[in-house]
Structure formats: C-alpha cells, structure tokens
C-alpha cells in the first residue's frame, strides 16, 4: 500500500510565498514522475508542475517563473515552492506520483491541501 502525504499550504497575502511538500511511503518499488495539480471551486483539476525521474520539469504557463518544483529521490518527496502568489492561485493542491512496479505503473494522489491567497 502506498500513501502520499502532503504538508504546507495555508493562507497568504498576494505577493507572498508558500511551500508544499509531499512524501510517498509504503511499498514503493520506484517512482517515475511526480507532480502537483490544483482544483479551484467550479473548475477542473489542472496540472501545475511536474518533474520526471530525470529531473525534467514542466509548468503550467500561469505559474512559470513563480513556482519551482523539485524532488528528493532519497526521501521519495516532491516539493513545490510558490512565490509571488496571486489570488487566482487559490485552490486545493494535490500531489501526484506515478509509481513503477514489476507489473506496470500506477497513479497515486494525495489528499489535497488548501492554498488561499488573499488580495
């Protein structure tokens, strides 16, 4: 059984910074990509940032230059540093990990953490 446990998030004023982390635990064989998604009220879940096992990153256009994703493979942890936050960044942020097993791959999701940016 695999769990993704997120931490961080909270309330911040526009222009401020927040950091999120997500640690994978359990029966982990290896991890492919890890990433962060977000879902605002009334909107679909969208990709925020993703990092591959070789540290290749990609970002949503709306967060480029403001957010930075990184990972610590020894700790099975992915991070998201969010700077210059805007009210439109307000959403529930979900961690995602694609785990590789001898029989194939499987997606896992964290429980979500609320990020609220006040104007």
Give an overview in words.
This protein is mainly beta and 119 residues long. The protein is built from no helices and 11 strands. The strands form 2 sheets. Strands 2, 4, 5, 6, 9, 10 and 11 form a 7-stranded mixed beta sheet that branches. A hairpin with a 5-residue loop joins β5 and β6.
Please provide a brief summary of the model.
With 119 residues, the chain is mainly beta. The chain has strands at 2-8, 10-13, 18-26, 30-39, 46-51, 57-59, 67-72, 77-82, 91-101, 104-109, 113-118. The strands form 2 sheets. Strands 2, 4, 5, 6, 9, 10 and 11 form a 7-stranded mixed β-sheet that branches. The protein has a 4-stranded antiparallel β-sheet with strand order 1-3-8-7, with no helix packed on it.
Q: Look at the helices and sheets and give the structural class.
A: mainly beta
String of helices and strands: EEEEEEEEEEE
* Average predicted local confidence, pLDDT: 96
Terminal Cα span: 41 Å
Largest sheet: 7 strands, mixed
Catalogue the unreliable spans. none
Question: Care to count the β-strands?
Answer: 11
What is the general shape? elongated
Oligomer: single chain
% residues in beta strands:
over 45%
Question: Count of DSSP helices?
Answer: 0
Radius of gyration: 14 Å
> What percent of residues adopt helix (DSSP H or I)?
under 10%
Features:
119 residues; mainly beta; seven-stranded mixed β-sheet; four-stranded antiparallel β-sheet; elongated
């Amino acid at each position: 059984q695999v769990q993704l446990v997120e931490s961080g998030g909270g309330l911040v004023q526009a222009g401020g910074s927040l950091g999120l982390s997500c640690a994978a635990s359990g029966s982990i064989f290896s991890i492919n990509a890890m990433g962060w998604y977000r879902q605002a009220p009334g909107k679909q879940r969208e990709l925020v940032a993703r990092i591959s096992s070789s540290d290749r990153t990609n970002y949503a256009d709306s967060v480029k230059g403001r957010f930075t994703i990184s990972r610590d493979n020894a700790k099975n942890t992915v991070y998201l540093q969010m700077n210059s936050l805007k009210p439109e960044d307000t959403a529930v942020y979900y961690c995602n990990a694609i785990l590789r097993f001898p029989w194939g791959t499987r997606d896992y999701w964290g429980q979500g953490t609320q990020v609220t940016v006040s104007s």
